[in-house]
Amino acid sequence: ISDQKPLGCWSVKHGQVLTCPVVCNFETHEYIAVHDGKVLRIWKDEDINLDKAFKATLSADVHRIHSLPEGGPLVLFKGGGVRTLDVLLEAPQQEIENVVSDEAIRWSGAFMESQQPVVVFATEKDGDFFVYVQKPKVDSLHKYRLEPQESSKPLSFTAYLKNQTVTLLCLYSNDSVYQVLVPLHQDAEEEEQILPKSLLLNLSVSGSVLKGTSLVVVDKDHVAVLGSLAAPDKEPKECLTIWNTKFQTLQTSKELPLGTSGQLWCYEEKFFLTHGKVLTVILYKCETSSLAAAVGKLKDSQTPGVSSFVNWDTLGNEERVVPFQPQESVAPKAESRMNLRSRRSGVAKVRSENLSVGQLLLSLKDAPTNVLESELKQLMSKAQTPDLQAAIGSVVTALTNRCKANPRYYPQSFLLQIVETRDLSYSLCPDLMAVALEKRDFYLLQICLQKFPDIPEEMTYACLKAFLSISDAYLRVTDVDLDSVICYIDVEFDSKEVKTEIVENGFNAELDEDMCDAKIPREAHSRSDGESCPVTPQRAALLNAVLHSAYSETFLLPHLKNLPAQQTILFLRYLYYLYVKCSEKVNTTLPGVRSPTINQIMDWMCLLLDAHFTVMVILPEARELLSKLHKFVRAQVRFYSELNKIEGSLRELQRLNHLRDSQTYSIEVLEII
Predict the structure, then answer these.
(1) Cα–Cα distance for residue pair 383/611, rounded to 1 Å
(2) Where does the Nucleolar protein 11 N-terminal domain lie (predicted)?
(3) Separation between Cα atoms, residue 67 and residue 90, nearest integer Å
(4) CA–CA distance, 9 with 31 (Å, rounded to integer)
(5) Cβ(228)–Cβ(240) below 8 Å
(6) How far apart are CA 669 and CA 306, in angstroms?
(7) Mean pLDDT (whole number) for 12-32
(8) Is 430 inside a domain boundary?
(9) Backbone angles phi, psi at 140, to 5 degrees
(10) E strand or H helix at 113, and its extent?
(11) pLDDT-derived band of residue 123, with 50, 70 and 90 as boundaries?
(12) Residue 260 near residue 226 (C-beta atoms within 8 A)
């Protein structure tokens, strides 16, 4: 998730619609999807074309597929029937029973109980709600009626299984959460049983009411609710809240100013929700519920206050937890005493070991530069600190914030040390590269491009444009890591590059010259194709760092179209130079550390041509380059085509070598026809 790069993308044909969420089969590592209600598709990660994936047309519309780690995929049909995927694939057109009788399924969940998969789903008909419990492997089905609630109805459901009983939590429109116990076993003779509900939680605190839209179970004593918090005479604000159901308190909350879709998921101690146009992932640590924690009086120094529950600092710059109202009588006093102490004795006197990372950074906000860097270095030296990576990201963010506030401040060596020695990512310190660009710190940008796995395409383009536009004179006095170019480019500027004697794979400029339609001036040949690098070693090293950066073509292309024509031609000339260099080697690999691969070179050449093809065709200075490129690629294709023709003969020769007695000396002449 931190990379923010699509690992795979599959789409249905125009006119087809995916009608339920795609799931993963944990046993076979396959994806399972349903489009147009009843068309089942199954494919693996390496499959490219979804249209060629396994297809099965079912006899009834599918509501949802549930995938259990140990129970396999379960298919729930809109009519209430349930089948395991294995049974369904044996006869895709088998008849599916209709058990819900004109009821609409509003929610469903799957669990494992006594090694048997169980599907629980809630339905609605004319304002009445029903709960079904179905065990497909033993052909068991139970139906219950949910106790009605006057003037309110369920908006969202969630459930968990414990002691052979499903605990169903229902978020109602009257801003309350009710608990319903659903037994997994029922007497066959008993008629439709009405399930009573009990009030679990009122979503209101100090006059503010949470209009919830979605809830998930965190543990037996905590639930998370996503919704809009409305206070008297104030605009409603969307927020994520965590409630202690045991003590009826709001544990912590976080405002979401960019808005959400109203959906919330929870998986492996992480919350997933959409915030604006991005998917936000929030890590949390859920500890045993206690009254001290519920009212904000937990004394454990490792978990000060309620901020230990969720690390909101990972979401933004120095953002803090918004505590629930009853805490305000306790927390501000302690905070004011801390601030008063710091003002009396100087920020440097605050003992960082007694503060959380967020509190320490706040206390150092106005500290002198030497104190700030000293405290931050001390913080990073504590390897035992929980969430060390996030803490270091917060340290870098604090430094970049100070750089933006004070243009004369730029701790280049300190930032470089952090990036080189720590396993950071762009998402942990999103302002670092922007500040480095502003300061023209090309060495730091180079290291970031080499190390960060999740650099946005917009930033990659900004670095590329800066690397191409900077003057050669400035680059000559700039410190740059030349490890990626020193083995194939002469670092002496005034001397020519050492020319290799290895013949390019199948390419001879003299023999192939007459085969190109375009007429190239004779002086162009005097420079010889790819003899000298078109850029200085410093610029080449920076461009190599861009070539190594991960990207998504869909997101990068719009930015590349804004690259000026002259810079595009310069970059394309360098890529052509690298392409020729790679082709000189039998293994098509450039020497050196972190040198570009042939695939990276080809991909970027294609990207540039896609983004600027019309400009390349029109500009006179680009025609020569395109002509060279066309000649070279055509010669390469011809060469590999000739190799393919003798492939069979070479394999036969290899087979004969295995059959021949290695002890006998002989000379054989083989004629290849």
Answers:
(1) 46
(2) 1-285
(3) 18
(4) 12
(5) no
(6) 84
(7) 90
(8) yes
(9) -115, 135
(10) strand 104-113
(11) very high
(12) yes
User: Which tokens sit at 398?
Assistant: 């604090």
C-alpha distances out from residue 559 to 463, 532, 534, 552, 613, Å: 12, 29, 24, 12, 15
Q: Are 127 and 153 in contact (CB under 8 A)?
A: yes
Query: Do residues 201 and 169 touch, judged by C-beta distance below 8 A?
Result: no
Distance from C-alpha of 314 to C-alpha of 391, rounded to nearest angstrom: 9
User: Which 3-state string (H, E, C) describes 260-315?
Assistant: CCCCEEECCCEEEEEECCEEEEEEECCCCCCHHHHCCCCCCCCCCHHHHCECHHHC
- pLDDT at residue number 542: 93
Give the type of residue at 228.
S
Amino acid at 386: P
Within a domain: residue 219? no
Whether residue 11 contacts residue 33, with contact meaning beta carbons closer than 8 Å, is answered with no
Task: From 436, 429, 437, 462, select the one nearest 551 (Cα to Cα).
Answer: 462
Asked if 636 and 630 count as a contact pair (C-beta separation under 8 A), the reply is no
Q: Residues near 534 by Cβ (< 8 Å), separated by ≥ 6?
A: 570, 573, 574, 577
Residue 70 inside a domain? The answer is no
DSSP readout, 33-99?
EEETTTEEEEEETT---GGGSEEEE-SS-EEEEEEETTTEEEEEETTS-EEEHHHHHH-TT------
pLDDT one-digit tens code per residue, 514-547: 444 433 333 333 333 446 888 998 999 999 999 9
C-alpha distances (whole Å) from 21 to each of 33, 62, 303, 363, 627 are 7, 11, 38, 46, 49
Cα–Cα distance between 278 and 399 in angstroms, integer? 25
Q: What pLDDT was estimated at residue 449?
A: 92
Residue 79 burial (C-beta neighbours within 10 Å; 0-12, 13-18, 19+): middle
3-state secondary structure of 543: helix
Residues in the chain: 673
Contact (CB, 8 A) for 584 and 499: no
Please tell me the distance from the alpha carbon of residue 128 to that of residue 147, in angstroms, as a whole number.
9
Residues 265 and 271: their CA atoms lie apart, in Å, by 6
Distance CA 406, CA 401 (A): 9
Strands 193-195 and 140-146: parallel
Q: What are phi and psi of 204, to 5 degrees?
A: -145, 145
Residue 151 domain-assigned (yes or no): no
DSSP, res 12: P
Question: Is it the case that residue 401 has pLDDT exceeding 60?
Answer: yes
The two structure tokens encoding residue 310:
């969720």
SS3 at position 172: strand
Three-class secondary structure of residue 177 per DSSP? strand
How many CB atoms neighbour CB 540 within 10 A? 24
310, 254 in Cβ contact below 8 A? yes
Q: Are the C-beta atoms of residues 1 and 281 closer than 8 Å to each other?
A: yes
Q: How many domains would you assign to the chain?
A: 1
Contact yes or no for 108/121 (Cβ under 8 A): yes
Q: What is the 3-state secondary structure (H, E, C) of 558-584?
A: HHHCCCCHHHHHHHHHHHHHHHHHHHH
Output the CA–CA distances (angstroms, integers) from residue 135 to 140, 352, 517, 575, in the order listed.
5, 55, 72, 61
Reference 232, options 207, 212, 252; nearest CA is 207
Segments forming the whole domain that contains residue 412 = 369-439
CB of 395 closer than 8 Å to CB of 352: no
Q: How far apart are CA 484 and CA 591, in angstroms?
A: 8
Confidence of residue 364 (pLDDT cuts 50, 70, 90): low
